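Write out the bound-state structure for uridine-5'-diphosphate.
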Amino acid sequence: MLSVVIPCHNEQDVLPLLVLRLRAVLDATDEPYEVIVIDDASSDATASVLTECRTAWPELRVRRLGTNVGHQLALTAGLDVAVGDFVVTMDADLQDPPELIPDMLRSAREECVDVVYARRVDRSSDSVLKRQTAAVYYRLMRRAASVEVTEQAGDFRLLSRRVVEVLRALPERHRVYRLLIPWLGFPSAVVEHRRDPRAAGTTKYTVRRMGVLAANSVTSFSTAPLRLSTAVGLGTAICSLLMAAAVVVAYAVGRTVPGWASLAVGMLFLGAVQLLCLGVLGEYVGRIFQEVQRRPLYTVTQDTAADVSTPPEPRRAPR
Ligand code: UDP
Ligand code: MG
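---
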């Protein structure tokens, strides 16, 4: 069986187009399948559009989340319930062409791999800002996280049941699947495609969200920022030692007129470095705090798979 997991947030315009194209592809594969759409607490008509789509398409399952948890955790909400032997994750906006799914399946079976990445070979449909930030992101990830990230592979990919089970066992909150999955090290293959422009609606990845993704990517895979602060601290310590030596020499020579400017500059500089280090430390302390809280990763308020009379148990990360 094949599962397709699609997180969506305020995608009312694109959903009818998606259903049309995806259903044509999946019906043609002649395999049993399920489609799980995660409605990431949309505030537009997404919920009602999905309800309508479901009446004509029983394979469509809708999970609506109570709060907007973002793309990665919405994916988690889908992976947690997908039952397929293969699970494809894709965006709702048709930038990931559904027509590629049969190729990905074939590649997984013929090459006996657990992960098939869909690599975007042509991103000319994306904005210049998006392409530039993506280029910097992938370069940075290779350096900082030392994970062999498949370049230009976003969250359009096929996973085998084995990989999905491993991902489900991960308790961490700040998850970035495009790093986690290569890091797991399962055998993988790549299928290439041209990145289409968004079929309708506007991007849900604002500059702020991209910043959050980048910060999560670095801090969940690398302590390089911590090490950097240590290096800066060391450098500053050496500088202040040199300064101290200069002060002693000045005293010995008898030029003890207080160097007000150098003192002030030195103090300010040290203060700034200390604050910087505190900030980096605080980032990690904050993450420890969040992990210790062990809040449910998301709450499900509606799930069409079961007639829920009692409220569903929120998922808790295993201890
Ligand atoms: N998305 C989501 N929750 C969010 C933001 C985005 O589920 O809080 C979904 C969105 O509906 C889409 C996918 O994540 O299916 C990728 O978002 P988008 O296409 O806006 O990002 P871009 O392609 O511009 O990077
Ligand atoms: Mg998109």
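---
The pocket of magnesium ion (ligand 2) is lined by residues 91, 93, 95, 198, 203 (CB under 6 Å).
The chain has two domains: 2-222+295-303, 224-293.
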